[in-house]
């Protein structure tokens, strides 16, 4: 099993954002359920951060779909790594909102706004660990 994490900039206008988030989550949950992928999506301050877990071929397919998705740009891949166990087994796609305790971690890292491209590899790992434990947001 592998884990793929990435960040990207949203291209959604503010008035479209909530609908786009709902569509992204709906599409992800459907695809992931059918392909045994689990994961989490975090959105704040114009940036997406997503961590996906599954088998190599499916994650490669998802990466190609993401690159073609017009709802985001400037995709930064944090790597594809082997993991011993899935961390989001209860979620085809967990959604964590900006107001979660993960934001508190970012504040401690000196970020007053979410800027995932500024995180180093250790900070990315720590942020992911906060997302494992974060309560999901059902609003989106």
Automatic annotation (TrEMBL):
Domain BLUF: 1-94
One of the Pfam families matching this protein, by short name: BLUF
Highest taxon above the source species: Bacteria
InterPro entries (alphabetical): Acylphosphatase-like_dom_sf (IPR036046), BLUF_domain (IPR007024)
Protein name: BLUF domain-containing protein
